[in-house]
Design brief:
The protein is globular, with a radius of gyration of 15 Å. The protein is built from 4 helices and 3 strands. The longest helix is centred in the first third of the chain and has 13 residues. Helix content is 47%, strand content 20%. The chain has one domain: Alpha-Beta Plaits, CATH 3.30.70. The chain is α+β, with helices and mostly antiparallel strands.
Length: 87
């Protein structure tokens, strides 16, 4: 059985934003995981420095698709697509 190679799609210092991005990617059927330094997420509520970084990662073979989705998301293009489909 082979393991997936995960790559970092984006890093953020906001755990909630990372959770939203992960859920949105998964809704688009793109596997996504969140990785954060061990102690930072449980014992120490850090909001600065390298321990506060949260990585949203996707499989390497889905990276281009995920990057394209992320660019549309950051530009606000996804909301326009939803509004057009409702009309």
């Amino acid at each position: 059985m082979s393991q997936k190679e995960w790559i970092t799609l984006i890093e953020t210092q906001d755990r909630l934003q990372a959770e939203i991005l992960r859920e949105a990617l998964q809704a688009c059927e793109i596997p996504a995981q969140i990785f954060q330094e061990g102690a930072a997420q449980f014992a120490y509520p850090l909001s600065v420095g390298p321990l506060s970084l949260v990585q949203v990662c996707v499989p390497a073979d889905r990276a281009q698709e995920a990057q394209a989705w992320l660019q549309d998301y950051l530009k606000g293009n996804l909301a326009a697509d939803d509004e057009e489909s409702e009309e």
